[in-house]
Hints:
This protein is of the alpha+beta class. The chain has helices at 16-21, 36-43, 92-105, 134-157; strands spanning 10-14, 22-32, 53-56, 62-65, 86-89, 108-116, 122-131.
Amino acid sequence: MAAKPEPNFKVVADNRKARYNYEIGETFEAGLALTGTEVKSLRTGKATIAESYAHVDRQGEAWLVNANIPEYLSGNRFNHPPKRPRKLLLKSRELAKLSQAVEREGMTIVPLKLYFNAKGRAKLQLALAKGKKLHDKREVEKKRDWSREKGRLLRARG
Length: 158
């Protein structure tokens, strides 16, 4: 059996709560407009995107809001503010699709994953998502628990 190929990107931050709190729809890959100290800080792997979100403003630009990229430890007075809004680099068709989905269908733009691709560029995986109600979350949890229990029972029998 051949060895599994290693993924050619390094995940910096993962938003695991998004899959629990939202019903994930279509996903997009966006570039990030970052400063030098932000890139260096990301390479240390200490960023968090759990409480962040994205929005498209009236000028048609997408922004990542409330993402925390901590200050670079070896940075000097030119260090960046940790929670500043960061511009997302998307194609115009993707921007139009995102803004229409938010306005018409009441969806949310949720960041799922922040990573460096094979070329070493910082990328953000975004998703159009719809918020789950409490009973939906409970239902998903019950299904997951039942599938685990079913697996245990089948292993114990056979």
